[in-house]
Design goal:
alpha+beta, Cytochrome p450, four-stranded mixed sheet, two-stranded antiparallel sheet, 8 strands
């Protein structure tokens, strides 16, 4: 426990402590710290991520689970496969734009699941709007960045104060990114039913026990859209970096894909159970560069004790999952990208999915969808492309942002098709896609 940024802060460094407090004592440790800048001034306090644990939050979670449960997400596998194929086609045409293409692809999955908005100008507008909002939101969630979070009465500062102007711009982006796709569905609902998407189907067949459905649905989906895109985007960018730096891993994964999938089709979600090394690559990517290394902060609702240590009310709890990912290991260097650590029967590593999506009652409701998206994107990229460092001996700098969601900073690499035949296959598969 230490004091910083005007708060009592407890950093958890073990998986046991995280599960003991954030899961088993969920009634005490499922609340959020109060946020002046992001929650009040930017208007995000009623979104699922910022919302305090209670009836409203439970209603949001209930809505999310109607389409994002483990069984329910299977209905989106075909859509995710198509989106991954479209990404591959984009990488064939403009490999240098992989940062932008991966972000769009990750956003398309979430936009499709939540709203069912078809490919076209509206979809493009909302994807770009979401990207602009997340750039602002990343700053809003940074601890100690804004003085008003440390001295709350500063929220009454004049409108011309720089942070007030920044909050106003962020608020406008937040509400636009939430309202515009929602209103599009209401006005064009018949065109948004190609998949069993959340908003159109809820509006057409509302649950009988859900009062004030439209408002709750608006806030729940707005939070899912922004949060659901970023972690997938960050993980896939880290994977591409890992392949450029670890050619032997890439070759081994491609050999497995060639043996299981062959050369006349792209991977599908049904192949996953037969691709243990590709699965290990997915796990190792999540471990090697956790997308949310300090987790999303919690707050203690009342005084508590843990293993003899006093935890005062309103303590901010930070689950340091980086400590789990980088725990010392005599056999496997945590700094190295080694998927085989997850296949070692004598010393199996902790599955990062046990901590990457959060804990307990506030575990990410989109964890199963996100896990599927990461897998199919990684499998498709491996099947289609060879990834290597940039030409002329340039090196890849492993530099990352320091926001709550941690991204690689822009880097260059070579992304080239493995063969002419696989390029033609991708073109055909993507051209027949309706996403």
């Amino acid at each position: 426990m230490f004091y910083g940024f005007g708060s009592k802060i407890l950093v958890l460094n073990s998986l046991q402590a995280m599960n003991d407090l954030l899961d088993k004592r969920g009634s005490t440790f499922s609340h959020r710290p109060h946020s002046v800048f992001g929650g009040e001034l930017m208007g995000m306090k009623d979104g699922t991520v910022y919302l305090q644990h209670g009836e409203e939050w439970r209603a949001h979670r209930k809505l999310a689970h109607t389409v994002l449960g483990r069984s329910q997400v299977k209905q989106f596998c075909e859509m995710q496969e198509s989106i991954a194929a479209v990404l591959a086609k984009g990488l064939l045409e403009a490999p240098q734009d992989f940062f932008t293409l991966v972000r769009i692809s990750a956003g398309r999955v979430v936009l499709g699941v939540l709203y069912g908005i078809p490919t076209g100008p509206a979809q493009t507008e909302y994807l770009l709007l979401g990207e602009r909002f997340m750039e602002v939101a990343a700053k809003a969630t940074a601890a100690g960045r804004y003085l008003c979070d440390l001295i709350p009465f500063l929220k009454h500062a004049p409108a011309w104060a720089p942070f007030q102007q920044e909050a106003r711009r962020g608020r406008e982006l937040f509400f636009d990114s939430m309202m515009k796709p929602f209103n599009y569905v209401k006005e064009n609902i018949s065109t948004c039913l190609a998949y069993p998407s959340m908003v159109p189907n809820m509006l057409l067949s509302p649950p009988e026990d859900m009062l004030d459905l439209e408002r709750k649905l608006l806030w729940a989906t707005g939070a899912l859209f922004s949060a659901g895109t970023e972690t997938t985007y960050a993980t896939i960018l880290s994977f591409i970096m890992a392949m450029a730096l670890n050619p032997s891993v890439q070759t081994k994964a491609q050999a497995e894909l060639d043996a299981v999938v062959g050369s006349d089709r792209l991977p599908t979600m049904q192949d996953r159970q037969d691709l243990p090394f590709v699965e290990a690559v997915v796990k190792e990517t999540m471990r090697w560069q956790p997308s949310v290394p300090l987790g999303v902060p919690r707050r203690s609702e009342c005084d508590d004790y843990y293993k003899g240590h006093f935890i005062p009310k309103d303590t901010v709890i930070l689950p340091n999952v980086w400590a789990i990912a980088y725990a010392p290991n005599a056999k496997y260097d945590p700094d190295e990208f080694i998927p085989d650590r997850f296949l070692d029967l004598d010393q199996s590593a902790i599955d990062p999915r046990s901590w990457a999506f959060g804990f307990g009652r506030r575990i990410c409701p989109g964890q199963h969808l996100g896990d599927n998206s990461i897998f199919i994107h990684i499998a498709t990229i491996l099947a289609v492309f060879n990834i290597s460092p940039p030409e002329h001996g340039a090196t890849i700098k492993m530099e990352f942002t320091q926001h709550i969601v941690r991204f690689p900073k822009p880097y260059e690499c070579r992304i080239v098709p493995r063969s002419d035949s696989i390029a033609k296959l991708v073109d055909t598969r993507a051209s027949n896609s309706d996403v």
